[in-house]
Specification:
The chain is an alpha/beta fold and 407 residues long. It folds into 4 domains: 2-67, no CATH class; 107-247, P-loop containing nucleotide triphosphate hydrolases (Rossmann fold), CATH 3.40.50; 253-313, Orthogonal Bundle (Helicase, Ruva Protein, domain 3), CATH 1.10.8.60; 318-404, Zinc Finger, Delta Prime, domain 3, CATH 1.20.272. It has helices at 2-52, 67-75, 85-94, 98-101, 114-126, 142-154, 173-185, 206-218, 237-241, 253-266, 273-283, 287-300, 306-313, 318-329, 333-346, 351-361, 369-387, 392-404; strands at residues 132-135, 162-166, 194-199, 223-229, 244-247, 270-271, 303-304. A 5-stranded parallel β-sheet has the order 2-3-4-1-5, with helices on both faces. Strand 3, helix 8 and strand 4 form a beta-alpha-beta unit. Helix 7 runs parallel beside helix 8 (206-218) and helix 11 packs parallel to helix 13 (306-313). The longest helix is centred in the N-terminal third of the chain and has 51 residues, at 2-52. The radius of gyration is 36 Å and the shape is globular. Pfam families: AAA, Rep_fac_C. It comes from Haloarcula hispanica N601. Keywords: ATP-binding, DNA replication, Nucleotide-binding. This is Replication factor C small subunit.
Length: 407
């Protein structure tokens, strides 16, 4: 028994020693781990301090670790840059979409439609809007006038009382039954009526337009509809008869030129006179196209000139169109076809755009009326065939061949 007790005591002591050893190893591992964490944090602090400009010595741990310092590895600190503050602000301004940045906020800012603006201002001043139909080509101010009316009627809360829908995306009858009726039914405070703006309403199906006609009658006490379209002939007569129709014509060249000058001065862009004339020509009464062309051309170089505008807008120079047609009328089909090939291949201009420019420029050519009528007839036939799916190059070459033969 004595021997047995001694063996048990020695084993117990051995186990205790092993436990102490294991515990000591665990403690040492914990200390090493903590030390590694401290060294790691110290190293992070040194790096972060260097980035912030505050250098910490390796032997002295930083007194604090800021959250922004550690987060700098994810979000990135602000490194010193050679770009000046003015250049940074200028580049930030160029990143904005100018057609939204310079969109008129009030009716007084809308250019080129004095008669329409005067009538709309009278509606707003009396707070007595009727259903309205805005018809006209793209980029002439239809959407701008609709949002300007809402801003002047409702002030800063205009978005709460203004529903804008693009009918080309949501063109089915379910849109009229669900979204429009739900908006019209909801309660509102402080205003007599709300506005529903349907952009590109001519894309609505006939069933949707029929349902919309009934909705306009049902909610006429608390909702006013503003419909925008490119072709009023696509709107059914019952809707047109319920609306005051405003027809927006393409903007005059003077109005487009004035706005382009103002934007160029605001953005500190060097705009040459021939560049301005090229923008006005390429826009063809579309203010949105002119502003987009100015922004795109300003990125490609310090100066916006004629060559930059024609290159960025994929527009043929008027003299090239004139040379192509005149060569065909003179019977030189080879030269005329070479000009056409350069426009289609090297400059990448679409055949439909060439047709449009031909139609715009025909009366500017130095040709007699008989020749002009003959060219217009060929242009119409070629345009019809292209829209029906025929090959653009083949049809344009056939048109030039017909003109060269004097047919």
């Amino acid at each position: 028994m004595v021997v047995l007790d001694g063996l048990i005591r020695r084993n117990v002591l051995a186990v205790d020693e092993d436990r102490h050893l294991v515990g000591a190893q665990v403690d040492r591992r914990k200390q090493v781990g903590v030390g590694r964490i401290r060294v790691h944090l110290q190293f992070v602090g040194v790096l972060a301090g260097d980035l912030d400009g505050d250098v910490h010595t390796p032997t002295t741990p930083p007194t604090h670790l800021r959250l922004s310092t550690l987060a700098g590895f994810k979000t990135g600190p602000r490194f010193p840059s050679s770009m000046s503050e003015a250049e940074s602000e200028s580049r930030a301004g160029r990143e904005e979409v100018w057609i939204e940045k310079y969109r008129p906020q009030t009716l007084d800012d809308v250019m080129g439609h004095e008669n329409i603006v005067g009538r709309l201002k009278s509606y707003v001043s009396r707070n007595d809007l009727s259903h309205m139909l805005f018809s006209g080509p793209a980029g002439t101010g239809k959407t701008t006038c609709a949002t300007a009316i809402a801003r002047e009627l409702y002030g800063e809360d205009w978005r709460e009382h203004f529903l804008e829908l693009n009918a080309s995306d949501e063109r089915g009858i379910d849109v009229v039954r669900d979204r429009i009726k739900n908006f019209a039914r909801t309660s509102f405070g402080g205003v007599e009526y709300r506005i529903i703006f349907l952009d590109e309403a001519d894309a609505l199906t006939s069933d949707a337009q029929s349902a919309l006609r009934r909705t306009m009658e049902q909610f006429s006490n608390n909702v006013r509809f503003i419909l925008s379209c490119n072709y009023s002939s696509q709107i059914i007569d019952p809707i047109q008869s319920r609306c005051a129709v405003f027809r927006f014509s393409p903007l005059a060249d003077d109005a487009v030129a004035e706005e382009i000058r103002n934007i160029a001065a605001e953005e500190d862009i060097e705009l040459t006179e021939d560049g301005l004339d090229a923008l006005v020509y390429a826009a063809d009464g579309d203010m949105r196209k002119a502003i987009n062309g100015l922004q795109a051309a300003s990125v490609s170089g310090d100066t916006v000139d004629e060559s930059a505008v024609y290159a960025i807008t994929s527009t043929a120079r008027p003299e090239e169109i004139r040379t192509m047609v005149q060569s065909a009328l003179d019977g030189d089909f080879t030269a005329s076809r070479a000009t056409l090939d350069r426009l289609l291949t090297e400059e990448g201009i679409a055949g439909g755009d060439i047709i449009d420019q031909l139609h715009r420029s025909i009366w500017e050519f130095d040709i007699d009326d008989e020749a002009a009528v003959r060219v217009l007839e060929r242009i119409g036939e070629t345009d019809y065939r292209i829209t029906r799916g025929a090959n653009e190059r083949v049809q344009l070459e056939a048109m030039l061949a017909s003109l060269a033969q004097g047919e």
